[in-house]
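Explain my protein.
***
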Amino acid sequence: IRLVVLDVMMPVMDGPAFVRALRPLDANVPIIATSGLHDNDKTVELRELGISTVLAKPFSAVALSRAVVTALEEAGRNGTQFAG
């Protein structure tokens, strides 16, 4: 997995719970969160968990593309290696 895009409000497991479950499996995978709820407790919690990109819905394909490129570039600068 090179990148995870998740919705903050998912059934069964919300965004912060998903991040907590994922980190032990891959501490370095870049994560982009999306949310239709602005400035809620879940987005604050995600930021506290180190998720720097939270896209507000609705977002454009261009905004998502930019976020993906940025996240992958940052992961590369932090030493994360991706098999090709």
